């Protein structure tokens, strides 16, 4: 956890938000290993993989290039439950830390992040394949 690169971590939130916005897909796993980040996305709709990859990579890089401010906020648990699926949250918490990347990418998270998306660089999806009929696994790097 402590080894996570703030750039990679912020980029993962952006990529996941784009998957959600464009394809109604949610992230189900992510691994950070050196320069590579591996993410698994659950896909609800059947679209050729190449098309998905191109669209999310382009959209993520547009967002990164918008030099968005990244800010932390704490919100109450009930408010958070109404806004997000919080299945990974431990029992007994009263407040939830969220990270906002611009106004429309909001993720419950306590990890390390950049202060502005201009620090991230360019996101490149290097590999992708389906690990099951509805799970797309990809790896990305930052240049
Ligand atoms: Zn985070």
Gist?
By secondary structure, this protein is an alpha+beta fold. The protein is 29% helix and 36% strand. The chain has helices at residues 6-23, 49-65, 77-83; strands spanning 26-33, 36-42, 70-76, 95-101, 105-108, 123-132, 135-142.
| Relative strand content | 35-45%
Oligomerization category of the chains in this entry: single chain
So what's the overall shape? globular
Rg over C-alpha atoms, rounded to the nearest angstrom: 15 Å
Q: Which series of helices and strands comes N to C? A: HEEHEHEEEE
SSE inventory with pairings:
Blueprint: H1 6-23, E1 26-33, E2 36-42, H2 49-65, E3 70-76, H3 77-83, E4 95-101, E5 105-108, E6 123-132, E7 135-142
Antiparallel strand pairs: 1-2, 2-7, 3-4, 4-5, 6-7
Helix pairs in contact: 1-2
Zinc ion (ZN) binds next to helix 1.
Explain how this protein is built.
The protein has 143 residues and is α+β, with helices and mostly antiparallel strands. The chain has a single domain, classed as 2-Layer Sandwich (Threonyl-tRNA Synthetase, Chain A, domain 2). 29% of the residues lie in helices and 36% in strands. It has a four-stranded antiparallel beta sheet with strand order 1-2-7-6, covered by helices on one side. The chain is globular, with a radius of gyration of 15 Å. The mean pLDDT is 90. Zinc ion (ZN) binds next to helix 1. Keywords: Aminoacyl-tRNA synthetase, Ligase, Metal-binding, Zinc. It comes from Candidatus Magasanikbacteria bacterium GW2011_GWC2_37_14. Its cofactor is Zn(2+). GO terms for molecular function: aminoacyl-tRNA deacylase activity; aminoacyl-tRNA ligase activity; ATP binding; metal ion binding. It holds the Pfam family tRNA_SAD.
